[in-house]
Amino acid sequence: MSETQHFDTIVIGGGPGGLAVAFGLAEQQQVAVVESDLWGGTCPNRGCDPKKMLYGVIESRVQDRRYAQHGLTGAAEIDWPALMAFKHSYTDGVPSGTEKGLAGSGVTTIHGAAAFLDPHTIRVGDAEYTAEFIIIATGAHALKPDIPGGDLLGTSTDFLDLPSLPPTMAFIGGGYVAVELANIAANAGAQVHLIQHNHRLLRDFPETYTQRLAKIMAARGIIFHWNTTVEKVTETADGVALQLSDGQSLAVARAFSAIGRPANTDLNLAAVGLTAVKGGIAVNDHLQTIQPNIYAVGDVIAKNQPKLTPVASYEGRYVVGQILGQDTAAIQYPVVPHIVFASPELGQVGVRLGTTAQAPDRYTVEEQDLSGWYTYQRIQDKTARVTTITDKNTHRLVGAVVLAVDAEELLNYLTVLIQEQKPASALQQWIPVYPSVASDLSYLYH
Ligand SMILES: Cc1cc2nc3c(=O)[nH]c(=O)nc-3n(C[C@H](O)[C@H](O)[C@H](O)COP(=O)(O)OP(=O)(O)OC[C@H]3O[C@@H](n4cnc5c(N)ncnc54)[C@H](O)[C@@H]3O)c2cc1C
Ligand SMILES: NC(=O)c1ccc[n+]([C@@H]2O[C@H](COP(=O)([O-])OP(=O)(O)OC[C@H]3O[C@@H](n4cnc5c(N)ncnc54)[C@H](O)[C@@H]3O)[C@@H](O)[C@H]2O)c1
């Protein structure tokens, strides 16, 4: 066994959370990052970024249809292998670029799966490493249902790497992954089934909005199987057959599991007295585990915040402040917007509609049809809507739900207004580019 190497901080996991810690500490400390798979983690290799590269091209096709009869003729077609090559033009450089960036900042990179030996020591393969601080940033992984033939199902990683477009596909689950990938597949030209074990799509979002989104997706040809479970998967000559709880057998070329992402906690946690709880590793409000020198950030934490890239990075930056002693306060999260990219997009931020129903004296809830706003008329988004939630006492915007093409833009502006605790009148002190989504904002407060 080689000599044990010592660092100030070791980060386990080279995704957005771990990288935020490593880059944040690199100037002041001797830092190492251990990565067992692809440097950069889920988001840029097999999550947000490749997904949105596919989505962008798919959305252009959907936008073409919105412009049909308004000056655009001819139907755009998806060339799936070329779309995959486009995705690879981005993703292929991520692992090496990330590792080079770390090395360039003086961070030691270690390849392999880390496991704890004691609160200050980890093992990677045959080597042992010690550190003052150890950060768990190991993220989460796709889950397949524990049913006969469950292994025949693919995951989001397989979908985002499909060399050709299967003619028929099924997605099991009704969360972010199932909705986003089903939308890409259907608008690329496949026949798509979405199988959900209850009647609820996207449980984080208000049902009035998820029902609208389901209607739009159904109109594009996605076949929803509500209150249905998959009991068995068998191989067929052309793909797989799914035995459904309603007695039907559904034959498709490919089927994908999208039933959630459990935390990666296979780290010999027992060696440091930690156990994984539902949702991941428990931390206090300083992101410390029960071992004060071991922190956890990102998707691996059991938390109430959404498991998203900017949240993981925020937590990583927070831990840097903790370790350097620059910040001793408990973590305070800003408002976190979240969005589903589903042609159109459904997003929300701040106070939830469910909360307003419980405190009607406190909030003004206003739903507006946006199809008459200049931007949505121009892009022919006939289903665009927003609900704003305003505090009755302060007149400040505190929450919003948006269903629209490019809802991310509107949602980001609303997030800034909420975070900065601005009253609506603040918009009058601002000169935006015209015409744009920002200039349309004045319609919100007519
Ligand atoms: C299909 C898909 C689409 C998504 N789209 C979005 C989106 O649009 N917007 C958004 O904000 N979020 C999105 N997400 C979520 C986002 O990818 C995650 O929230 C984010 O990557 C979490 O960062 P992390 O650093 O906590 O974990 P990860 O990015 O998962 O990184 C953890 C790293 O740790 C490594 N690791 C695990 N165990 C060990 C070990 N024992 N030793 C060493 N290394 C280990 C893993 O290999 C991995 O590289 C998406 C996720 C998926 C799957
Ligand atoms: N746009 C984005 O920001 C984005 C996109 C993709 C993923 N993500 C992140 O990835 C996480 C995981 O996404 P996801 O869609 O896999 O999980 P999810 O938790 O969002 O949804 C899981 C879905 O599977 C269903 N389900 C659970 N167990 C089941 C079972 N045994 N059989 C059938 N259905 C079952 C649930 O009812 C739910 O609809 C998200 O929570 C989010 O943090 C974010």
TrEMBL record:
Organism of provenance: Schleiferilactobacillus harbinensis
Cofactor(s) of this protein: FAD
Entry's family note: Belongs to the class-I pyridine nucleotide-disulfide oxidoreductase family.
Superkingdom assignment: Bacteria
Keyword Flavoprotein applies: yes
Domain FAD/NAD(P)-binding: 7-316
This protein's record includes keyword Flavoprotein: yes
Keywords noted in UniProt: FAD, Flavoprotein
Protein's name according to its UniProt entry: NAD(P)/FAD-dependent oxidoreductase
Annotated Pfam families: Pyr_redox_2, Pyr_redox_dim
